[in-house]
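Pilot study result, target chain (426 residues):
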Amino acid sequence: MKATASNRFLEAGHLPTLLASFFYFGFSCCIWVLNGAMAPFISETFELTPAQKGLMLSIPIIAGALMRVPLGVLSQYIGRKNATLVEMGLIAVALLYGWWMVESFSDLLKMGVLLGIAGASFGVALSLGSGWYPPRHKGLAMGLVGAGNVGTAVSVLVAPPLAQWLGWQTVYAVAAASVALPVLVMIVFAKEPPDVDAHASLREHAACLFEKDGWAFSLIYAVTFGGFIGLITFLPSYYHDQFGVGKVQAGQLTMLAAFMGAAVRVIGGWVADRWGGVNTLTVVLVVVAVGLAGAGFAGSALLPTTLLLVVCFAALGAGNGALFQLVPLRWPASTAVAGSMIGEIGALGGGLVPNAMGLSKQYLGSYAWGFAGFALLALVMLGVMRVMQTRWTRTWAAQGGRARSASPAVPPRIAPAPLEPSGARS
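Predicted structure:
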């Protein structure tokens, strides 16, 4: 009997490593947004201004994006599985610092840098989880690992009630103890992949950023994933300040949006496979722009704002999946490498969101202008993509961003010389 597509995928790689990578990335995302989940409690303790809140929430996102390169380099020397164990050990130390040492706003900023260690997990998780899979299945494997960003929904759901019960600093201690679970899963179930993709040089990792396509993908991802992670860290504070809801309820409302965004990521990749990544991203960016503008100017109407944000997060999640449907088409011989670098640059966009929101509130008197600015950025990236997609469909993709039935010749300037040996070994 002919094997189904799901059976072919399951048999093509090492499922326990894929699941361990998903769990590791999910836990890391949970820790990465912990300050955002508890922001209403933290802000009350230190009496933070809107601009200070924005800075506090931005620091972990920016630090996490910047730390992805050092963690990726470390994984070159000690292996990806070992790198995840080292990182989780550092996460535990960072959380203990938050439990014992945070006594001022400057301590909060230091804590934000340390929480960035958790945000560094994306590239290694992607490479570890997809490393056992051949190129034709890497896109799906990366999408399944990337769905671990559902950990952000867990954080905003669980952390506020714990903070109300135990005190917000004690939540860091609980999180530090819980690190033992993903460590155990990684030790028992994960195996170091044999792929050569992970042994690329730093130049090869950055190769896609020497091309227009690499920057276009990264900037689109700054809107989709950057918007996802940035808004999640900001929304608990927004709900609490703008609508006067309780701290726990603010987390629950944020969870609705966060879970929707994480759940739809895989669906977005599935739709993009059939309809085309460019077509899917076109709809995504329009919905994001309309949803953000509508939410920003909905004023004090809680229900319409929440519904608009849920729709917006669904689009952001679908956009993340759709963009990574295109990555294996554009860089078939170095999918995980290119995906890792695009993820790093894209995540930096998330650090702008809480800052922009805080500055908008403090200096313009309303969060609406922050939402409007991000909506405008989504429309700008839509224009950039629609201009570039003409060349994409002439070279490496079929109409609308679908996969071609036969692999085309690699166009000039797509793969710099250093990538050729790696591609030949893949």
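One observation from the pilot: Residues 407-426 have pLDDT under 50 and may be disordered. A full batch analysis is planned for the follow-on phase.
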